[in-house]
Amino acid sequence: MKSRKQNKIMRALLNSQILSVVGLAIMLTLSSSSFAQHTSNPDSISQEPPQWNLEEREVPIGGKILELPEGSPIAAFSSGGAKEKALDDFIEEQKVAGFLVLQDGKIRMERYALEHNATNLWSSLSVAKSVTSTLVGIAIKDGYIKSVDDYVTDYLPNLKGSAFDSVKIRHLLTMTTGVRWNEDYTDPNGDIAKFETDSIEPGMNAIVSYMRRLPAEAEPGEKFKYSTGETHLLGTLISAATHQTLSQYLSSKIWIPYGMEQTATWRLDRTGQEMAGCCLQMPLRDFARFGQFVLEDGRINGTSIVPNDWFKTATKIHVPMWPGGGYGYGWWIFDSNSFKALGIHGQMIHIDPARKLVIAINSKWPEADSNERHLVVNNFIKSITNEIDKE
Question: Which domain holds residue 152?
Fold first, then answer.
């Protein structure tokens, strides 16, 4: 059971939905001082907007849990190791609540702080986008969706006659619909705020009702714009195609058969649809298990539940943003060796297939996003992989 303070932390994180795409895209190649950081006011994120729906739906587990056995500790970061203090400093300075290193399916490092522990649920924030993207692949394998080249209106007919007429599922996956969207949650006239307060057309899903009124500003596929609304719409499309709630589908396809440890929760909008672009709560080890599931190419009991090469396609660069990196199907690609699911305030699942490595991080950065913090985290991950490579 989460304490009142822990619930307050989680809801504060839930209520700050913005990602600085420019800072995120360029942080590894240029000095962070070259770009203004998009930050959130700590006072503002501690206030819970009264109009926001805080209802959640459970993502149940089954009777089997995928064990994560202990592996050998990474010597340099262990007690008495040369980098033990560097680990302690990193956790304190970067406001890390949970840090887990999984290699070959074994836990090589696990640390908690800020009153977090192995059983507390922590918000994914935008890490959920990578989960939703994965559910598209599963729905294609199941035959509910034919292809990423299907038109969105084939599944959400209430969008016909809107700016989404020529938009395909792949455009939602890559955030290249060309539909106008303002992600800044601090802007009272931004789409994050207005989605929670605008009137809903009778008999219509909240996100469909809102998105169908937005104008186009580019042709589909021409322009990338980070949009939580588009991933939320993608989740609604999955529910329409499968005739299941997103939580039910996630539970039946991954949470139960793969063996997640705890029932997760997914925040709902005002019409009871999961907020597919954010707000999936789970413990740190289940973040790592999801990363392991992806690392194993979506295999459960020896059979992949996604189409052939799904993750190869999903984690390749569809939207180039800087040399060697960019955006895929809800995944961030930083180099040829790894990819990440990312959320504001420092949430991350880092996946390095060649090293069979998954690193899951829960954090409580006071800023929504920070070039400097991203650079520090990236460098710390490099220090871990360097030590692993020495073994």
Answer: 4-390
- The DSSP code for 349 is E
Tokens representing residue 202 in the block: 């009778």
Q: Please give the helix or strand (H or E) that residue 380 lies within, else none.
A: helix 371-390
- Based on the structure, what is the number of domains in the chain? 1
- From the CA atom positions of the chain, what is the Rg in Å? 20
Angle, CA 156 vertex, CA 187 and CA 241 arms, to 5°: 115
- The CATH number given to whatever domain includes residue 134 is 3.40.710.10
Separation between Cα atoms, residue 284 and residue 119, nearest integer Å: 8
Q: Are 97 and 114 in contact (CB under 8 A)?
A: yes
Q: What is the pLDDT along the chain (391 residues), one digit of tens a residue?
A: 444 444 444 444 443 333 333 334 333 332 222 222 222 222 222 223 334 578 999 999 999 999 999 999 999 999 999 999 999 999 999 999 999 999 999 999 999 999 999 999 999 999 999 999 999 999 999 999 999 999 999 999 999 999 999 999 999 999 999 999 999 878 888 888 888 889 999 999 999 999 999 999 999 999 999 999 999 999 999 999 999 999 999 999 999 999 999 999 999 999 999 999 999 999 999 999 999 999 999 999 999 999 999 999 999 999 999 999 999 999 999 888 999 999 999 999 999 999 999 999 999 999 988 999 999 999 999 999 999 999 9
Q: What is the pTM of this model?
A: 0.88
Residue 213, SS3 per DSSP:
coil
Give the chain's count of helices (H) and strands (E): 13, 14
